[in-house]
Specification:
With 405 residues, the chain is α+β, with helices and mostly antiparallel strands. It is built from 14 helices and 20 strands. Strands 9-10-3-2-1-12-11 form a 7-stranded mixed beta sheet. A 6-stranded mixed beta sheet has the order 16-13-17-20-18-19, with helices on both faces. It has a 5-stranded antiparallel beta sheet with strand order 4-5-6-7-8. The chain is elongated, with a radius of gyration of 24 Å. The chain binds zinc ion (ZN).
């Protein structure tokens, strides 16, 4: 199931066989080479064409020193650092035979975004200083001197240009599954409420609404199966998800009468858990790890962890905004109470390099809320409401990104 989804999600924007770097009157051709079936450009040739410099540091570190910006890279790590931002890459830069090869995404996306005043013209295969583009004084393209860029016989990569016109991808994660039932409830009665079933049912309804509104949806699971927490984020990343929504049901810390009265909805984004209650939910949801076999367990590579941490930081503010939007929206349909936006360090959110939230849609441990959450019409209302918030968020985010260009 996952393998099929992986294949279906890749959008097509072929790279040319070479690109033209235009800086004022000067144009330089930089060949696009195919490495491991993926289009790449040599960092030194690109830097020379852009009047920048490739600086080779220690420990596989490289710096692209452009006239107006610096980007730091590590050989084999699919991220670039720009100031304090960590920019995810479609694939890692590779040093081979004394040369550093950059994924084509650098030309089509990273440099136009972070390079300090460049734009990439997909049709012309031309990277140019955007000052000229903006003022409109650019001389007519002299591409007649060279053959027009042709389509390389390489597997397509999804570039930013493609993703802007392509539908947004919402990753929906139905919490738990298979042997991991999640919480069961209610407290003090025969336990008929199972979290994993309710989360899947709501997730599917959310999928239906979003698809009807023209969004692409990737489900981390569509059946009663166990997906490792670390894999849920990985599935989202490899499919270029734009947002990640994990659906869960809540339970109190103790099975007491007071615990049974707990109810309401809350939305989490990734950060260190601050309060005792946040830590409780964090521990409860991270419990799923114990159901995972060694093969699926996180690798625990310290470098991986640091990189993951950096990548998620970039989306912290956006994740918080998304959590806020969803939580505010739910006030309109949920009987409540509104328990607010919370932060915790969820394993499921940790591996996703995109704005990511976890919604606790209510307490299955509370008799009346368990009944409310099990009702199909209520599930549809919750799903519709969450979908509207996600759409509102994506539209807002899109206009902000557009304005920054
Ligand atoms: Zn859960």
């Amino acid at each position: 199931m996952i393998a099929l989804l992986l294949a279906a999600q890749i959008a097509a924007t072929p790279a040319p066989t070479f690109i033209i770097v235009r800086d004022g009157q000067t144009t330089t051709q930089v060949p696009v080479t195919i490495y491991d079936g993926e289009p790449c450009v040599r960092a030194d040739l690109l830097m020379r064409a852009m009047k920048g410099m490739l600086i080779t540091g220690t420990n596989l570190h490289f710096t692209l020193a452009l006239p107006r910006a610096r980007l730091d890279l590590i050989d084999g790590i699919p991220f670039a650092k720009f100031d304090t931002l960590t920019v995810p890459l479609t694939r890692a830069p590779q040093a081979r035979g004394g040369q550093l090869y950059l994924p084509f995404q650098f030309v089509s996306e990273v440099i136009p975004r972070y390079g300090g005043g460049y734009s990439y013209d997909v049709a012309q295969g031309e990277l140019r200083t955007s000052a000229l583009t903006a003022v409109g004084r650019a001389p007519p393209p002299r591409v007649t001197a060279t053959p027009p860029p042709t389509v390389a016989a390489a597997p397509p990569v999804r570039t930013r240009a493609a993703s802007r016109s392509a539908p947004k991808v919402v990753v929906i994660d139905a919490g738990h599954g298979g042997p991991d039932r999640g919480m069961i409830g209610p407290i003090g009665t025969p336990q008929w409420f199972t979290e994993k079933d309710v989360t899947l049912s709501v997730a599917k309804k959310l999928e239906t609404v979003l698809r009807a509104r023209g969004y692409d949806v990737l489900m981390t699971r569509t059946t009663d199966t166990l997906i490792a927490l670390s894999d849920r984020g990985r599935i989202a990343n490899s499919n270029h998800g734009d947002v990640f929504i994990s659906i869960h049901c809540n339970a109190p810390g103790s099975n007491t009468a007071a615990g049974a009265r707990e109810r309401g909805f809350e939305t989490y984004f990734l950060a260190e858990a601050k309060t005792e209650d946040e830590r409780r939910v964090q521990d409860m949801e991270n419990e799923s790890v114990k159901f995972e076999t060694g093969a699926n367990a996180p690798k625990g590579d310290p470098l991986n962890f640091i990189i993951t941490d950096m990548a998620q930081n970039e989306h912290l503010r956006e994740s918080s905004d998304l959590a806020q939007t969803i939580q505010q929206g739910l006030i309109d349909v949920h009987p409540g109470p509104n328990r607010g936006v919370q932060q915790a360090n969820f394993a499921v959110l940790r591996g996703s390099y995109m704005p990511a939230v976890l919604v606790e849609i209510g307490f299955g441990s509370n008799q009346s809320e368990a009944t409310y959450l099990s009702d199909q019409a209520n599930q549809r209302a919750l799903a519709r409401n969450i979908a509207e918030s996600v759409i509102a968020y994506l539209q807002h985010y899109d206009s902000r990104i557009g304005g920054a260009r």
